[in-house]
Structures are given as C-alpha cells and as structure tokens.
From TrEMBL:
Keywords: Methyltransferase, Signal, Transferase. GO terms for molecular function: methyltransferase activity. SUPFAM superfamilies: S-adenosyl-L-methionine-dependent methyltransferases. InterPro entries: S-AdoMet-dep_MeTrfase_Alr7345, SAM-dependent_MTases_sf. This is Predicted methyltransferase. Residues 1-31 form the signal peptide. GO terms for biological process: methylation.
Length: 257
C-alpha cells in the first residue's frame, strides 16, 4: 500500500508547468537540478525541530547528505524511515522537484512510529514525501522504479530479528534502482564474529556480514566514510546506552550500469 502524504496544488499555472518540466528532467529546472545543495544550510534550516538538532550531534547529517550525493530532482527511497529524521533531510535536499519514498512496515508504523511520522508529515519541508507502508522484503510499490538513491540508515540490523527475507529485500532494492544508482547504508558496528546475532540485543551488526549480504544482490562497493567511526567503542554494549560514542560504518554501493 502506498500512501501519499502531500499532494497540494501549485499556486500558479506557470509554476505547475515548470514543476512538470522539472519532474520530466527537461526544461528550465534542469540546470538547477544539476547543482549540489548547500548541505550545511539544509541542516541549519530554522524550521527544523530542537529534537532533530539534538540528533544532529551524533549523526553529522551534513556529512551524511554530502556522502549520499542527494540533489534536487532525485527520486529516493528511505528504508525504515521510522520517525522521518533522515527522510526530512533528504526531502529538503531533493526539493523542489524530487521525491522521497519513506518506507516502513505496517506493523512497525502502528506499533511505534505512526504519530511521530504523521506529525512530521505536516511540515512544509515534507511536501515531496510519499509514505510507503509495505513489508521490508517487498518495500517498493510496483509502479515505482528507476530510483536514483536508496538510503538505509541504522536499521539493517533490525531486519535480522524480524521475519524478513533479507536476500529478497536486497534483490528488490537492487531492481528498483536505475543502472548507476546508489545505495547508501549505515549501521552500528558489532564485534568481529558477532555476525547477525546481536541485532535485537545490542542493535548492531557485523560490518562484514552486512557487506556480504548486500554484495550478494549485485551491489558494488564504491566507497566508505569514517566520519562516524569510533574505534574506542568496544562494541559490546547496546547502542541506546553507550559508555562511549558508538562505532558506526557508512558504505556507498552502486548498481552497475
């Protein structure tokens, strides 16, 4: 099931025409869409919430947005969007003509995130977001394809203790990306040898395990980032009660052209 949370009519006909051209990748908006946004300015937007600014302190969102390469006009899938912290940032980065599909399963939405996401969805910055309520191993509506970017932030480990076919999920993500499109995935690092066994207890996953699963679907590693690395983390405590900053890995994969 796909739920559109925003479909406001443009204020003027000329704006509507320009928006259509932009969505089709043609016309006057194309040059603007090629520009890289000012990610620091996005993060500093005065209408962002205090709660999100608190989260910024550990997430380093400007660096994460730059690493994703999100730009105006892009079509993005945000896996396990949860309360929409990353969804909103991505929506700001791909505005005004891009779209962000914020995905979560029906069970998770009803149990823990519906109110948070619905409240966020009322913000003007979320006008180009579509809330997609589907199972994680079938996350993309059949009428959605040719995605430029998929993000999977700090949630892949959740798939290890839910009834999710991760191999099928990864195949579906691969199929939904356009050739040359990117998957950016970040998660909390588990100790060597922990594999996928501590997802529920520590909310972590061993990096090598995640890499193997993603690469089995056909994704090719392009680069990785170290701005969330914390080698001082012994990686043996739940991430919600860290004694030191949590060690986290950030990886960028690509669907071969």
């Amino acid at each position: 099931m796909t739920i559109s949370i925003y479909r406001r009519a443009p204020a003027a006909g000329v704006f509507a025409i320009l928006s259509m051209f932009c969505a089709w990748g043609m016309g006057p908006a194309t040059a603007q869409d090629a520009k890289t946004p000012d990610y620091e300015a996005i993060v500093a937007s005065p209408d962002r919430s205090d709660a999100d600014r608190q989260t910024d302190q550990r997430r380093q969102p400007a660096k994460m947005l730059a690493f994703t390469g999100a730009k105006p006009g892009m079509k993005v899938l945000d896996m396990e969007a949860s309360g929409g912290y990353s969804t909103e940032l991505l929506a700001r980065a791909v505005a005004p003509s891009g779209t962000v599909y914020a995905q979560d399963s029906a069970a998770v939405v009803e149990r823990s995130v519906k109110d948070k996401f619905d409240t966020r969805a009322q913000k003007p910055a979320m006008k180009n977001v579509v809330h997609v309520v589907r199972n994680y191993d079938d996350p993309i509506p059949p009428d959605v394809g040719g995605l430029d970017l998929i993000t999977f932030f700090f949630a892949y480990h959740d798939m290890t203790y839910m009834p999710v076919d991760r191999a099928e999920m990864n195949r579906k993500m691969f199929a939904a990306l356009k050739p040359g499109g990117f998957l950016v995935i970040a998660d909390h690092s588990a100790k060597s040898g922990d594999s996928a066994t501590v997802g529920k207890t520590l909310h972590r996953i061993e990096e090598s395990t995640l890499r193997q699963e993603i690469e089995a679907a056909g994704f090719k590693l392009v680069t990785e980032a170290d701005f969330l690395r914390h080698p001082e983390d012994p990686r043996d405590a739940p991430v919600f009660h860290p004694q030191v900053p949590t060690d986290e890995f950030v990886l960028k994969y690509q669907k071969p052209s």
